[in-house]
Amino acid sequence: MLQTVVKKNSYQDSINLMLLTNAINALEGVNKSQIMMGTDANKDIFKNSGLLTPEAEAADPSDMVIVVDSDSADVLDLVLDKTEEFLSDLSVKHEASGLKEVDCWDDALEELPDANLALFSTPGEYTAPEIEKALDRGLNVFSFSDNISLEDEVRLKQKAHEKGLMLMGPDCGTGVISSIPIAFTNVSKPGNIGIVGASGTGIQEVAAIIDRLGGGLIHAIGTGGRDLSSEVGAITVKDAIVGLENHEPTDVICVISKPPAPAVRDEVVDLLEKCSKPVVAIFLGEKPTHHLGKVYLAHTLEETAHIAVDLANGNPVRKNYLEPLDFECTNPLPEEKTVIGLYSGGTLANEAGMLVSEALDLGGVVKEDGYILHAKGYDVIDLGDDIYTQGKPHPMIDPEVRIDYIRKYASMPSTGVILFDCMLGYGCHPDMAGALAPIIREQLDKAKAEGRELYFVGSVTGTENDPQDYHKSFQELRDAGAIMETSNARAIRLALELKGIHFTEEDREVVPYEVKDDSPLPEPSPQLVELLNTTPRIINVGVKSFNESLRDYGAKTVQFNWKPLAGGNKRMIHLLDELDKRRDEIDAANERMIARFRESQPFLVDVVPAKTVIPELNRARKTLLHAGPPITWENMMGPMRGSCIGAALFEGWANTEEEALALLESGEVEFIPCHHCHAVGPMGGITSANMAVLVVENKADDTVAYCTMNEGIGKVLRFGAYSQEVVDRLHWMADELGPVLAKALKLKEGGINLSVLIARAITQGDEFHQRNMAASLNFLKEVAPLIVKTDVDEDAKERVIQFLADTDQFFLNVMMATGKSIVDYAREDEESCIVTTMTRNGYEFGVRIGACGDEWFTAPVNTPHGLYFTGFTEDDACPDNGDSAICETVGVGGMAMVAAPGVTRFVGAGGFEDALNISNEMERICVSHNPNWTIPTWDFKGTCLGIDIRKVVATGITPLINTGIAHKKAGLGQVGAGTVRAPLACFEKALEAYCARLGIE
């Protein structure tokens, strides 16, 4: 039975999830499980494992997917508990580390402005564009990430070179920069040797032997295994060689390469010959017969290390570095017994395949299905190959795959020797020797019991300063029965000795070399010189544990908690990446619009009949304004239809509900969005000619906005009620409330300054959408003395003041008109990708952005979640309605939840932490803050300002809107209050249109 849980937008790095999967698979009752992110590549792994369920198939790349095969449904609870415990432990460790964590490039560079290196360990299918962003920001790159196309590698390395930067990788497993170990790295003593390596474990083996010989490293520059291919042309190798040649503390240059393209190999040798510093090089797969000019050529990784140390110490290079083994085989294994290599290190496997093939004339190494050698029963396997690591941790991290292969090969009668490596260092298993020793002992005992000869021969790649303890690991494997040697090459020689084959090396002389290209050695770029001469400042993009070695040895780091942009949507990622190339001009346009938001000066100046200020309501044809983007009667939901019926009764177009409904269905009434008329309306938003509207003037340029007044609570038109009580209240508001307020406002020169009132009320616990109590009382404080001064009848004064005192939400509609006056002023700058309108009509949610003027981008509206009045549930709720999302558009409402913790019961457990988390989340999709409206409970930061569609689409975070909830049937009114999320599709459509406007395909 397969059970699936999808945790939306819960990104975790792949290594953590692989380790978690192993822990889950060890639980009683779990037949098998897989926990991975919902990428396309991972879905293939789920499918191949027989674990792809419909829920997993539908997951997004930013979703964590848990699939469990179990005979018991109860096991899933145990799995979820274990998952939560595992991830919580990670979180505690990260908090304890004091590591600063960010979620985007801008924040990373703000936190570490002098960063000079980006370290990537993200899924390869998404990494190339991120590397390009790092290069465009002037950062050198170390890419642990693999599965990057060869075409992208060539393009990005050429770009890096042109910018004077260095791209190390992709698939760069190890490195040392200024003695700082990076990624899977051993801890080497500082010294005067600089390594350039198109091989991760090759660097580790040479560096570890150098360390044990008493030498030390200053740099080990990984380049990725394809750098010396004909397509890449050794771009990074060449730049690194030039950098080390001009790096004063480097006395010896050491080059390590997997089998290179011949022509590229010759270019590299040509470059090395021009260096003034001594050079040692190994091109794995070659068996050199002599040295070339200034370049000493090695056959094995061990010999490479010995030559480098001699050169570093100023000693002459010996003709032969082969030293005798402390082992003598008196009874060689019979011919049918073979040597098997089971390696976690790809380069060490290559070295084993090369030497065994040379000794037995097996035709050379291969590269197929993880095999390095596969001939006549002699198998050497790189268990770190992609074929073995899909959905599983690398064998340097987890021994499971290697243990399975040890059991498989150790049980074969033909197996005489199993060669293996044990990799130590940062990033590796904390006790690989302890994990391998039991299986070695088990298989040796089993072979002995069966009367078979079997040997395990291995080496440990590591130093005495590695976290795992080199000497302890070496001895533990020896105590388990393995024959241990001090290098991989010596272990291979010993395995051949067990077969009766004595390994030899011919003496090597130096032969002259004529440089083919006599152009001078290039000069290193200033950026490369700076990288090699300072302690690196690193933005770590991906696996958090890589920070450990960096920080332990003195590097400054910031953790970039990367997850796929746009939920992994490849089209959106492409558009965002193209926009990122123009970010300077886009950011400048956004800043211009933000300035208009900030400089707005909204004043409440009047209350008038709508028809006196909205020309569209004076047409011969009956007309109603509604909330949201354009909509027809056929698509209106119950509450909006109810509001239309109430408006028809109010205007006298009909005397009964039936007459009003017939009129509205006949097509005689024209419907226009409030937003098309400088107006806004709450919930249904219905505004008719004779309704009273608030008039807010933005004195920055006299932009004017209108909104009907708040009716109070209970049965009200905005929620679709249309009884006689509702109609009578509307008449009173038009005939008495509006005129009284208008007279009062005329006594206040210039009107009431709303920005000041809002600034005051936000400090008193309002967020201006769900909670307006402080603002409504402050408004009453401002307007009551003015009302008293008017010549209005005393009874009318009392009724108006009492209504304002009773109507806690009165200021909501004032805030809406305020927001409309601000965005309509800001919209006059038509260049930015800032959201200028958010609204909903019960059928669709609509947004507008600066650069696209009046164009609407719509998607189906969501239904709110929240608290319901007694007797009602979410089943009764209508999808969201209203122009009141103008509040969130200008940064209040749900965007400013932290200002009003009292309303968080609508969105979570009801604590202050919920409010803080929401505002922090909303901050991530905004450009800036509004210093006019500061929030004491948010360390006096201003409200969020400027929702940027790039940020919304990139993060998948959509604005949270506080809202009332209407019954889905007309006439029943409000049934609760809560929150709703804007649909992402609106912002994706806006992004596409914005890109089209900029000419981005």
From TrEMBL:
GO terms for molecular function: succinate-CoA ligase (ADP-forming) activity; succinate-CoA ligase (GDP-forming) activity. Residues 342-495 form the ATP-citrate synthase/succinyl-CoA ligase C-terminal domain. Coiled coil: none annotated. GO terms for cellular component: cytosol; succinate-CoA ligase complex (ADP-forming). One of its GO terms (biological process) is tricarboxylic acid cycle. Transmembrane segments: none annotated. Pfam families: AllG, CoA_binding, Ligase_CoA. Residues 189-285 form the CoA-binding domain. NCBIfam families: PRK06091.1 (NF004760). This is Acyl-CoA synthetase FdrA. It comes from Olsenella porci.
